[in-house]
Design brief:
single chain; about 300 residues; Indigoidine synthase fold; binds pseudouridine-5'-monophosphate; binds manganese (II) ion; about 50% helix
């Protein structure tokens, strides 16, 4: 297959036998949450995938090796090292592998490595997108480009309004990426279930998601599919708390002149700081919820 790729034994066996597998990202471990909650959450997410009938494959780069599936020690290593591990997007992949460095995989590189390994379904928290003010900064996440090119289904809780959600959806439309709402007409906004923007199609269950994915592959369409799975009501945040925190984080980011790959981590950390533990708890719960839907979709897909 590929000399840089290591597929964990149980993941490789599942793929070879057409059994359900779900990819999980590692930027959320190293950069998205503090230690030790990041490790606890990463292990629990794997547990949720298993409870719902699929094999988890957390994806990362270790010593220049592309890893499809980590063991507990490797997850602990990623959680402990945290921000010391470089965030790896598409443009970083060759340099990180050539130098035998570690890399925390974003949605982009998780999709790439999942696809190399033959994994079709991926669960995460939120995706990157078109930043507010992108009409002058041109700051658009590589995640959107990857969704346009790589045939992996990404189950997320929408995107945070640190982004321009309307422009993010426009960009996805241009690149031919279907945006599907899991049980909703509204594209979710991560901490809250509604962004005010509509999805392209609403589905009622994971079997429908599996059917759309399979049909997309049968048609030979090249890109991915984005699923917006709203945060469960009991964990959703009060918009009057979260929105001012997001506005404040963006204002500070602009004042400090933060740019490029630092923008998203800065905004995420600032929002967390301003909203305290509440947003962390919501963040953890929505990832579990996405892992469940992704696993159930992978199970349905394995029957088709
Ligand atoms: N948005 C979130 N949570 C995240 C990220 C984005 O709400 O954890 C992470 C993901 O790994 C995503 C990456 O793929 O940030 C996007 O970074 P950028 O905007 O620099 O492309
Ligand atoms: Mn960017």
């Amino acid at each position: 297959m590929n000399n840089y790729l290591d597929v964990k034994k149980e993941v490789a066996e599942a793929i070879a036998n057409g059994k359900p597998v779900v990819a999980l990202e590692s930027t959320i471990i190293s950069h998205g949450m503090p230690y030790p909650q990041n490790v606890e959450t990463a292990l629990k997410v794997e547990q949720v995938v298993k409870e719902n009938g699929a094999i988890p494959a957390t994806i990362a780069i270790i010593g220049g090796r592309l890893k499809a599936g980590l063991d507990e020690n490797e997850i602990e290593y990623f959680g402990k090292k945290g921000l010391e591990i470089a965030k790896a997007s598409r443009r970083d992949l060759a340099s990180i592998c050539a130098r035998k460095n570690d890399g925390a995989c974003t949605v982009t590189t998780t999709m790439m490595i999942a696809h190399m390994a033959g994994i079709k379904i991926f669960a995460t928290g939120g995706i990157g997108g078109v930043h507010r003010g992108a009409e002058t900064t041109m700051d658009i996440s590589a995640d959107l480009e990857e969704l346009g090119n790589t045939p992996v289904m990404v189950v997320c809780a929408g995107c945070k309004s640190i982004l321009d959600i309307g422009l993010t959806l426009e960009y996805l439309e241009t690149h031919g990426v279907p945006v599907i709402g899991m049980g909703t007409e509204d594209f979710p906004a991560f901490y809250t279930s509604k962004s005010g923007y509509k999805v392209d199609y609403k589905v009622e269950n994971p079997a429908e998601l599996a059917n759309i994915y399979k049909t997309s592959r049968d048609l030979g369409l090249k890109g991915g599919i984005l699923v917006g799975n709203p945060i469960p009501e009991e964990y959703s945040m009060n918009p009057n708390v979260i929105n001012p925190a997001i506005d404040k984080a963006i204002a500070e980011c602009n004042e400090l002149g933060i740019k490029g790959k630092e923008t998203t981590p800065f905004l995420l950390a600032k929002v967390k700081e301003l909203t305290g533990g509440d947003s962390l708890d919501s963040n953890i719960q929505l990832v579990f919820n996405n892992a469940k839907i992704a696993a159930q979709t992978a199970v349905e897909l394995s029957k088709l």
